Amino acid sequence: xxxxxxxxxxxxxxxxxxxxxxxxxxxxxxxxxxxxxxxxxxxxxxxxxxxxxxxxxxxxxxxxxxxxxxxxxxxxxxxxxxxxxxxxxxxxxxxxxxxxxxxxxxxxxxxxxxxxxxxxxxxxxxxxxxxxxxxxxxxxxxxxxxx
Amino acid sequence: xxxxxxxxxxxxxxxxxxxxxxxxxxxxxxxxxxxxxxxxxxxxxxxxxxxxxxxxxxxxxxxxxxxxxxxxxxxxxxxxxxxxxxxxxxxxxxxxxxxxxxxxxxxxxxxxxxxxxxxxxxxxxxxxxxxxxxxxxxxxxxxxxxx
DNA sequence: CGACTTGGTTCGGAATCCGAACTCACCTAT
DNA sequence: ATAGGTGAGTTCGGATTCCGAACCAAGTCG
Lengths: 147, 147
Known about the structure:
Two copies of one chain form a homodimer.
Chain A: H1 10-18, H2 23-32, H3 37-44, H4 48-61, E1 64-70, E2 75-80, H5 82-85, H6 88-101, E3 111-113, E4 121-126, E5 131-133, E6 138-140
Antiparallel strand pairs in A: 1-2, 4-5
The first copy, chain A, binds a DNA duplex (30 and 30 nucleotides) through helix 3 and helix 4.
């Protein structure tokens, strides 16, 4: 375990679950549709013991659920829970950042609004003021994260 | 180095820069206002050699710039570049996820809209349709990330 | 001068990671 | 029924990487 780094911070908490070299890539694969051990393994070029461990951790934390989907050869699949699904904003943010600043030449995957097919944007919104705004207009209340 | 895992994916690219146990926490500290080596070190309970290495990497990748801000004892500070600032959506997303699903009992830091003081939300928006939408309404074009 | 601060670097030992080989339960072909 | 194959792991060294403690250098203060 990580010895509580003095700071009770939700980013810290999230990273205790997600913050190693593979976990987020496993999640990316899950969002792409992978469900079974072998699928993750094929797509990710990760060592099997590490994959086993990461999947187990994610199940324990409630990000995946492990379900038997076939009895007679007993096979199970790892599905994103709602908690896991809720990571999509984080992955989308990472993806867009990579697109923008690490563009490796080729055209990256573009996310679009399903209904109209136009590219999506990600914004901070204030429902009171009913407007979107930039990172510079964020303030924080107690602990002090200030973009 | 990571041997290119077959897949030219921006999430992969981002994680090659950010994806280890400490880098995102260093960025969190930067957003909180830390600039100097010692500040990061004090707040993060990280080994100095690792901190040295991570800061160097982040400077090389263009996330931080290292600037001399005092000559006569030569002191420099690490400042977020625009590229670094652009990570705020990712960190905000992680923080909100942690708030929501890993709530460690106490009241977490709340982000608010600076102008009005009301809590902020983070949404996907389509400027064509001029509306916000949920992860389930995202589609992807070439490579295949589909929340 | 000698103590102290800042920003590191140099060490081993400890934890992690990884590839390859092995296991185990089951299915399919002969 | 035996042989071979597959999917999902586990076990085993060896190679990385991490980390704590100690050391170093430049500058400043008393």
